Amino acid sequence: MGGNILVADDDAAIRTVLSQALTRVGYEVRTTGNVATLWRWVQAGEGDLIITDVVMPDDNAFEILPRIKKLRPDLPIIVMSAQNTFMTAIKASERGAYDYLPKPFDLRELVNIVGRAMSEPKTRTRPEPQVDLEGMPLVGRSPAMQEIYRVLARLMQTDLTVMITGESGTGKELVARALHDYGKRKSGPFVAINMAAIPRDLIESELFGHEKGAFTGANQRSAGRFEQAEGGTLFLDEIGDMPMEAQTRLLRVLQQGEYTTVGGRTPIKTNVRIVAATNKDLRNLIHQGLFREDLFFRLNVVPLRLPPLRERAEDVPDLVYHFFALAASEGLPLKHVEQPALERLKRHRWPGNIRELENLVRRLAALYPQESISEHLIEAELSAEAAPFLSGFAPRPGGDERGKDSDHTDSLASAVERHLNELFRAHGDGLPPPGIYHRVLRELEYPLISAVLAVTRGNQIKAAELLGLNRNTLRKKVKDLDIKLMRLPR
Q: Pairing state of beta strands 49-53 and 77-81?
């Protein structure tokens, strides 16, 4: 490959690992543990690429990056950091870094990034926008969030259409706002519309506006969301609920950059960035004939999946203190969460994702006088949330029927543990009976699926969404478990 690489990191072990890995693939490597030496090498014209940590003993790399880019604008810089936040990724991008890697990093990925950077033409330039970096719109340091930060950092200064997917409560609108607030359209308006919250026959009027007399009740001209978002960003939430007629009109906007109002005849040019979001499987809707395939490909230019909170449990403590801080800024007392309580929160499945966690934190801040939040208090709150879903349903055929006065404040984990101990004792030798895994799994799945189906009044599509299951998978489980579809009275 060839080329000279400058590595700056105050960790000698990391310098050694990088030097050995890059030397093996043909690069010459010079390493240093401070910013001053790196800057001296850059001034002397050394190096074809830089790999640097952010926090160094004598300076912060973010302070020197603009000077390096001004002196040698074609020199690629790869930034590494253990401060794995959304703002770190954004700062790296804004200060001209070629790429950003959170620590710990994948060595093969870094070598591949180096290879791409070294092979690109040296005329490559990056915009250097001036952005207010106060605050942190996204919270989390898990590997899943790190990848999202890196993708967002690359998208900030583009107008590419983005499709955000994820379960309800994962923060899709927050990500859309971050794309706008930290992007090149930040001075323009951010306009959001939720397709599921608007009557289907009014969506076209809401999106594109209407002329006076276009339909009964249209007493004056009304601007649509596209007109309101001109020069900025239009966030189309729950895009899977858009009716086919509106999909056709939206496709024309994406293809031709213009639209007509309802009742209008003159095409109107539009300059809007589109960010769409859904918690549905659009490919499945396409197969059902409910969503246009050509529109899907127009919207899905950059797909971005937000992980559910259960897939990033290590972020729960950061989120908890973030929400407590927000509550404190609104006048509620600041709380301390004991470590066992945090561990219990990390074990929770969070079907409502970040929204559910935020509601819990605000409830704890508002309703409890104690300064320290204990595991017992968390357990009681989580059990109270689950009680409405688990009470009042028929027991599994052949199972024990529990009285109505059973203690709903018991945790599910405790109840399962007691049940297992009874099973082991009943087996005689204190050991679990054969096939215990599938038996317990079946006994847990039956009341869970029954409860969700009852809450959704037998709507399997909604139940599948809440459970995080494919609809066909849910149907199979209903059949295999012999679940009787229960409907609550309206």
A: parallel
Of the three residues 364, 389, 414, the one that is the final residue of a domain is 389
3-state secondary structure the chain: CCCEEEEECCCHHHHHHHHHHHHHCCCEEEEECCHHHHHHHHHCCCCCEEEEECECCCCEHHHHHHHHHHHCCCCCEEEEECCCCHHHHHHHHHCCCCEEEECCCCHHHHHHHHHHHHHCCCCCCCCCCCCCCCCCCCCCCCHHHHHHHHHHHHHCCCCCCEEEECCCCCCHHHHHHHHHHCCCCCCCCEEEEEHHHCCHHHHHHHHHCECCCCCCCCCCCECCHHHHCCCCEEEEECHHHCCHHHHHHHHHHHHHCEECCECCCCCEECCCEEEEEECCCHHHHHHCCCCCHHHHHHHCCEEEECCCHHHHHHHHHHHHHHHHHHHHHCCCCCCEECHHHHHHHHHCCCCCHHHHHHHHHHHHHHHCCCCEECHHHHHHHHHHHHHHHHCCCCCCCCCCCCCCCCCCCCCHHHHHHHHHHHHHHHHCCCCCCCCHHHHHHHHHHHHHHHHHHHHCCCCHHHHHHHHCCCHHHHHHHHHHCCCCCCCCCC
Residue 63 CB contacts under 8 Å (≥ 6 apart), including other chains:
none
Kindly report the number of other CB atoms within 10 A of residue 107's CB atom.
13
What count of other Cβ atoms lies within 10 Å of the Cβ of residue 119?
Answer: 9
At 190 the pLDDT is 95
pLDDT digits (tens, 9 = 90+) for 382-435: 876 554 444 444 344 444 444 444 444 345 666 666 666 666 665 555 566 666
Is 185 among the domain residues? yes
Query: What is the per-residue pLDDT across 238-273, written as a single tens digit (0 to 9) for each?
Result: 999 999 989 999 999 999 899 888 888 888 999 999
CA separation for the pair 141, 388 (Å, rounded)? 33
Residue that terminates a domain, selected from 349, 372, 389:
389
CATH code at 8?
3.40.50.2300
Mean pLDDT calculated for residue range 318-347: 88
Give the integer Cα–Cα distance in Å for 35 and 116. 25
Give the range of the structural domain holding residue 93, as residue numbers without chain letter. Answer: 4-132
Give pLDDT, residue 384: 66
Nearest to 44 by CA among 32, 56, 54: 32
Mean pLDDT of the chain: 81
Q: Which of 3-17, 363-377, 382-396 has the lowest mean pLDDT?
A: 382-396
* Chain centre to alpha carbon of residue 87: 15
* Rg value, the chain, Cα: 27
